[in-house]
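Researcher: Next entry in the queue.
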Amino acid sequence: MMSKSAELSDIRRDFERVAPDIVQRAARYAASILADVAGRRGTMDGRIAPLAKSMRIAGPAFTIEVRPGDNLMIHAAIAMACPGDVLVIDGKADRTCALMGAIMMNACRKLRLGGVIVDAAVRDSEELIALGFPVFAVGTNPNGPTKNVSGRINWPISCGGAVVRPGDLVVGDGDGVVVIEREKAESLLALAEQKVADERKRIGDIVAGRNLRPKWLEDSLRAAGALKKGEVL
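Model: Structure for this entry, 233 residues:
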């Protein structure tokens, strides 16, 4: 059992991660599929985007909170994180400087971390894209950060407006990032598989010229008051 002092420490070392097999299975699905089956919730604001549209990310969240413009705690997190962990950083959406660049990202890649999601700016973007290590950020800025201010590691944070707890599942692609509670992740995988199958069938029908109008459309229009009872489009 964790001691009381460890529970209250700004740096938490022990937490339960979403299981590796669940991460592996979830990584097969688009962020949009997982967001839909999670109730159309849990996505980060669109300001957080991959440096390259081809970048994909999936893994347990290793959460970091920093003061705007300071990356001291990110250096500590890199030293602590385990292979596969995704650094999820609450950088307060600050764009006045970059919190990470090529040196730190190369270290993350060498340590086999799963990627970085930062609600702030990064730099060395051309090098990072060439590196191929998945990085999701608010934007870029050539200015460097300070390393003077403490923060917190592995506490619940807000990143892109989404609540992220240590060990939660994060999945990102060209559309953005979805966060799924660790306890809920496995239960959504069968739903995701079924949704993929349903969408493939729907697109197949459209391509073949069948059922071009959604079956639910007129009922929804009536429920919304746009059509009267018995009225059709």
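Model: Residues 202 and 215 are 11 Å apart (CA to CA).
Researcher: Noted, moving on.
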